[in-house]
Amino acid sequence: MFNRCQGWRSNDKTVSHLWPLVPFDGSEMSPTPAKLALIGFGAFGQLIAAHLPPHLRVHVIDPDPAAQSAALARGLCPAGIEVVGDCDWVLLAVPLGALRPVLHQIAPLLRPGAVVMDVVSVKEEPARLMQDVLPEHVELLATHPLFGPQSARTRLAGAKVALCPLRGRRWRAVAVVLRRAGLRVLRMTPQDHDREAAVGQAIVHYLARAMEEFAIPRAVTTRSFDQLVAALALVRNDPPEVAAAVLQGNLHAPAVGRRLAAAIAAQARGDAPTA
């Protein structure tokens, strides 16, 4: 494997279509590779790195020695936070609880025209933080890849990505690249995202936590039950910070949780279902 800190081309041709050469504005391609700062190299950061092309000079920023070792093992370059000032793209693969301090760290370092993106599972709070903390001379794109290391273990084609443009125009090029890679791009506002996610995500997490109260039967089960258990296992094994973002970081989730609990209680009492 080549050292991608230097922007050399890898021999892995399976992912090179995921990101174009710099610049991403549709103008004539530059012979100079774009530089991307990937902040956070946990499970999701490593998933992202596996699908970045050899055209990028990727700098991994994570103080965890294990993360730095993982980056080196993949031919990526561990770096300090100061490298952000030399990067065209900054991808924040950090949990919601770590986002504010990271934004304050990078704010004075960002170069004019840089594009900053997050991948937090909720969008209203990250969008607010990025707009409040980061300077006006950078572009902002809030994103939510609707998949994770477990669900995207074998393939990404057909998976969905929510894009919430906040500032600038280069999000359109990102959308084009993602579509070419076979992903389904959903453009929406952070508010619309979180309202839908309160049902589409939070309910699954609530059910997964509730199922922990039960011993799962192994013999007397139906196919639908087995499929339900398998689906809930995908989120039950998520890192705690993911569940925290989905359930506590989404302002709409508590109301959905209460409505879900009330609906289950009504069914248990034998009440007639409401319209």
From TrEMBL:
GO molecular function: NAD+ binding; prephenate dehydrogenase (NAD+) activity; prephenate dehydrogenase (NADP+) activity
Domain Prephenate/arogenate dehydrogenase: 34-275
Keyword annotations: Oxidoreductase
GO biological process, one term: tyrosine biosynthetic process
Listed name of the protein: Prephenate/arogenate dehydrogenase domain-containing protein
Organism encoding this protein: Gemmobacter lanyuensis
